[in-house]
């Protein structure tokens, strides 16, 4: 088995896809459970071990993972698990599962499969920008392949059975990660996010469920999957994402006009000045300031930095990535100093 630690410092996350001015990334995920085995939350160790062993053995034959990684969570250090979580490859829950958790990861890091998280198997396809349909095409091929080799728990009325009732049915969760700074600045974001629930969508933070929105970055996804087919769910998230892109673009235009323009440009260049000169900076503050730079780029301001660099810094300035880059444990002040140094280096004129 090869190591599941990412090969590239910042991976595909630095790339820019369709509608990248607002949409950072897209993900489609499927939840599946093995027939006649108890859900992971019941913590029956024999079932968890059998599921882990069975899924890993089946996956060894898939071409994606022959060139990628097949790993048991206990074989990874706490730091490696944290790095994978920071890259949105695994969840916080799987990162904490150091006994019977597992991970399958392709070479490009765009098709992770978590084993024994909330469900026995959670397979996903992800990529930069708005690419839900492309992600679904990749994921449905993997799902078909796995389904021919593993008996899934399925009910004729309720569809695929999952640990959480909201995931029953297709077991599908389609989501996009959006940068919405103008809607935050104009105080429109609260009403917009409230409206999503009426459309069957949920809004979450930077790390997904249970997290807050760092750097004006929000994750939106379908709230449930029962009673709808996969394509209709993906189409719903796609349509609402495009609507949010439109709202954010219009808000950016408004704040770049009088009387907002000077205030907006001042906020952007103050942020650049801090990032270019700070000697210590926390992650939340860094995310807030990087958000302002992303906004400035899309308003056409000359900042001497690319969107790709800002995407990379969103990943590389996280705590576990800094610790791994330094090659040693860091105190919080030392980590804040290392983050500031990395930002100065990448944002120097």
Features:
Creatine Kinase, Chain A, domain 2, two-stranded antiparallel sheet, 2 domains, eight-stranded antiparallel sheet, globular, 45% helix, 13 helices, 349 residues, alpha+beta
The assigned structural class equals alpha+beta
Name of the level-1 CATH class of the largest domain: Alpha Beta
Share of residues in strands: 5-15%
How much is the radius of gyration in Å?
A: 21 Å
The number of domains:
2
Largest sheet: 8 strands, antiparallel
Q: DSSP helix count?
A: 13
CATH topology of the largest domain: Creatine Kinase, Chain A, domain 2
What's the order of the H and E elements?
EHHEHHEEEHEEEHHEEHHHHHH
Low-confidence stretches: none
Number of beta-strand segments: 10
Description:
The mean pLDDT is 91. This protein is globular. The protein has helices at residues 45-59, 63-66, 78-86, 92-95, 132-147, 181-185, 189-198, 230-255, 260-277, 283-298, 307-316, 319-326, 332-347; strands at residues 23-32, 69-72, 102-105, 112-115, 121-128, 154-155, 159-160, 172-179, 201-204, 217-222. The protein has 349 residues and is α+β, with helices and mostly antiparallel strands. The protein has two domains: 11-251, Glutamine synthetase/guanido kinase, catalytic domain (Creatine Kinase, Chain A, domain 2); 260-347, no CATH class. Strands 2-3-4-5-1-8-10-9 form an eight-stranded antiparallel sheet. Strands 6-7 form a two-stranded antiparallel ribbon. Helix 10 runs antiparallel to helix 11.
